[in-house]
Amino acid sequence: MDNRRIAVLLSGRGSNFVAIHEAIERGDLEAEICCVISNRADAEGLERAREFGLDAVCLPSRGMGREEYDRLLGRALEPFRPALVCLAGFMRIVTPVLLDAYPGRILNIHPSLLPSFPGLHAQRQALQYGVKISGCTVHLADEGVDSGPILMQRAVEVEDGDTEETLSARILAEEHQLYWRAIALMLARLTSAS
After folding, report:
1. What is the Cα–Cα distance from 89 to 29, expressed in whole angstroms?
2. What is the pLDDT of residues 34-84, one digit of tens each?
3. Residue 42's domain spans which residues?
4. Per-10-residue mean pLDDT for the chain, 194 residues long?
5. Phi and psi (nearest 5°) for 99?
6. What is the DSSP string of 17-75?
7. How far apart are CA 32 and CA 29, in angstroms?
């Protein structure tokens, strides 16, 4: 394991992955993205990874059990030897198979102030509940849905007339600033522990 190598797992457009890559390019985050893996062949994030010259791997999950897929994922990650595995819009719940391979080293970002509104459609949940403050959270992944220990959070005010789309866009802008900072925090912890 190299203490600066991070693997990114994604299922879609990969905007958080791009923000992490940009933070590295700017010199704000001292890290190296060793691979980008998606469970969907049509994930835009995979194409962006290829454009950046990164190792981009499609590992389809359709029709596979969660543990079976995580075993496959673990084998795919192994040669890259990441210090951290960063879930960036990876639409799968990880199992102990992967959690045990990277104990305390799998991060996730979620568009709410956890523990409020875990799971899908967090912004819609927030609006339906009528909260005045929402936001985003980076946490360590565990066996639950968005239930692991919280590393960092950022608040976003809910404005009158917000829709799921407008609130989501403002939260996403904060995610792009928060995730790389949480990665830096975790890499610093790993370095000081070694």
Report:
1. 20
2. 999 999 999 999 999 999 999 999 999 999 999 999 999 999 999 999 999
3. 5-193
4. 88 97 98 98 97 97 95 97 97 95 97 97 97 98 95 98 97 98 96 82
5. -60, -40
6. HHHHHHHHHHTSS--EEEEEEES-TT-HHHHHHHHTT--EEE---TT--HHHHHHHHHH
7. 9
Task: Give the residue from 47, 96, 51 showing the smallest Cα distance to 73.
Answer: 96
| Residue 114 DSSP class | T
CB 174 within 8 A of CB 136: yes
Q: Which residues are catalytic?
A: 110
Q: Residue 125 maps to which CATH number?
A: 3.40.50.170
User: Considering the entire predicted model, what is its pTM?
Assistant: 0.96
> How many folded domains does the chain comprise?
1
Pull the structure tokens for residue 96: 């102990």
